[in-house]
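Marked as duplicate of an earlier ticket. Keeping the data here for the record.
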Amino acid sequence: MKWQDYIEENPKILGGKPIFTGTRISVELVLERLAAGETEEQLIRQYPTLRPEHIRAAFGFAATQLSLMRSVLLDEEAV
């Protein structure tokens, strides 16, 4: 599964935030709700256009974004 098949960024929808293709549901919203303890089933019930594939794609998207981040490690004495 490629997350790119399920997630898009469109400047005309939600200010360009990543959303699930064909919806106005942001990836951010889904990840925040899952992190807060909601289940996949609860989200799908609340957002009927959301599918299990979308949720898996959100995790793939998040992993890709994290892999692109650069970390700078500071010497403790420099802080």
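See parent ticket for discussion. The longest helix spans residues 52-68.
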